[in-house]
């Protein structure tokens, strides 16, 4: 059973089609890098997958459980959302401690307090910020906040992790730290990861497969090495060689 399959997905704003994906599927335990020019629809894609945004049409199969995403009810949506975790490009920190920021999702899910503490410690350890548990989350640096956002997602033990540009706006040292964390969690957990990134080299370093999203369409999808070494479509060749301005 595949973690995620997409059928006839379209997202529109008025007359404008933002996303059009006739079919796509994602395998268990695989990390996918999603690249493409700015405005291609990458963030829209992740938001629709996480059911934060309703498509105009289309269905998603999540572990074989097919849902009409355009007509999804809230209660059914919540059930599906709980299999996933989404890290937004600019994650907001709540004005509480780091610990409470990470524990929040578990509270919503009714996880008992003692178990919560255990899971939060484990997640903080994964991102190397166990010592920051008692600090005010709004006092964190950009890199630390991004790590806490990751911990907030990981604590939920999602089967599907959706990352939207997890290292944009970070300095090289913090980019390296986030990349190490992603590499480590992939070793420790069987998760399917979809990561949008504008760093082509990051997609190449971390992903098993890459997708090129252009003007709302998946133009190309391939194993990472082939994706970069022998891109088939001209638009992807231009994008990789830097000829496409983005
Ligand atoms: N809620 C929205 N309503 C209307 N247009 C939107 C909305 N969200 C995004 N867009 C437009 O859709 C296109 C894709 O945006 P986005 O998914 O953010 O692209 P990317 O993440 O690839 O840069 C852009 O042209 C953007 O202006
Ligand atoms: Mg985006």
Task: Explain the overall architecture.
The chain is of the alpha/beta class. It has a domain at 91-157. The protein has helices at 42-49, 74-81, 98-108, 113-126, 142-154, 172-188, 200-206, 224-229, 234-241, and strands spanning 4-13, 16-26, 31-35, 57-62, 65-68, 84-87, 160-164, 192-196, 209-214, 217-223. The chain has a six-stranded mixed β-sheet with strand order 6-7-8-3-9-10, sandwiched between helices. It has a four-stranded antiparallel β-sheet with strand order 2-1-4-5, with helices on one face. A hairpin with a 2-residue loop joins strand 1 (4-13) and strand 2. Helix 3 packs parallel to helix 5. The mean pLDDT is 93. Bound molecules: adenosine-5'-diphosphate and magnesium ion. Adenosine-5'-diphosphate is lined by residues 13, 18, 36, 38-44.
**Number of beta-strand segments:** 10
Give the CA-CA distance, first to last residue.
37 Å
SSE ordering: EEEHEEHEHHHEHEHEEHH
Q: Uncertain spans, ≥5 residues at pLDDT below 50?
A: none
Main sheet properties: 6 strands, mixed
Lateral arrangement of strands in the main beta sheet: 6-7-8-3-9-10
Q: Ligands bound here?
A: adenosine-5'-diphosphate, magnesium ion
Q: What integer is the average pLDDT?
A: 93
Domain ABC transporter: 4-240
Pfam families: ABC_tran (PF00005)
Keywords: ATP-binding, Nucleotide-binding, Transport
InterPro entries: AAA+_ATPase, ABC_transporter-like_ATP-bd, ABC_transporter-like_CS, P-loop_NTPase
């Amino acid at each position: 059973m595949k973690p995620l399959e997409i059928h006839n997905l379209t997202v529109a704003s008025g007359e404008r089609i933002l996303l059009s994906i006739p079919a796509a599927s994602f395998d268990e335990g695989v990390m996918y890098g999603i690249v493409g020019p700015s405005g291609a629809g990458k963030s829209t894609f992740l938001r629709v997958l996480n059911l934060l945004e309703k498509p105009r049409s289309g269905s998603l199969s999540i572990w074989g459980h097919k849902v009409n995403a355009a007509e999804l009810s809230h209660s059914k949506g919540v059930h599906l959302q709980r299999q996933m975790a989404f890290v937004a490009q600019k994650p907001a920190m709540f004005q509480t401690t780091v610990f409470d920021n990470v524990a929040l999702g578990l509270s919503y899910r009714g996880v008992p307090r003692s178990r919560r503490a255990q899971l939060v410690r484990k997640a903080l350890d994964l991102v190397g910020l166990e010592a920051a548990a008692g600090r005010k989350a709004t006092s964190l640096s950009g890199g630390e906040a991004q790590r806490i956002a990751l911990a907030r997602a990981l604590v939920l033990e999602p089967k599907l992790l959706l990352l939207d540009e997890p290292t944009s706006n970070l300095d090289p040292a913090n980019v390296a730290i986030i990349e190490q964390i992603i590499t480590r969690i992939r070793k420790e957990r069987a998760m399917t990861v979809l990561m949008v990134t504008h760093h082509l080299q990051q997609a190449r370093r971390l992903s098993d497969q890459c997708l090129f999203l252009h003007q709302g369409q998946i133009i190309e999808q391939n194993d990472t090495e082939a994706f970069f070494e022998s891109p088939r479509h001209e638009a992807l060749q231009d994008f990789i060689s830097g000829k496409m301005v983005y």
